[in-house]
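Q: Hi! First time doing this. I have a protein sequence and I read that you can turn it into a structure. Is that right? Here it is:
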Amino acid sequence: MTSINGKMKAFFYKDGYLRTSSKEYQLTASTLGNKFIHLVNDAVQKHGEDYGKYENGNKLSFDEFQDYLDDQFSHLHIDFRRDLIPQI
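A: Yes, that's right. Below is the predicted 3D structure, encoded as structure tokens:
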């Protein structure tokens, strides 16, 4: 995102990746401080004991995520680029 003379522009690339956490998401008082649940940046995740357990480097390309959706939720007919990207 840029701003030149008060005019803002945003750029979005059609290819990218999603970062994932090493631990299953849980929102409870006891898990609020668990950085391996709530922070997905590589600087944090690479120190977790489960780093890379589910995806290589805790990252999924958009295409890999689409494959996951097709495999696990085929009955919902979710298209990542059509249905989810516009909401991001």
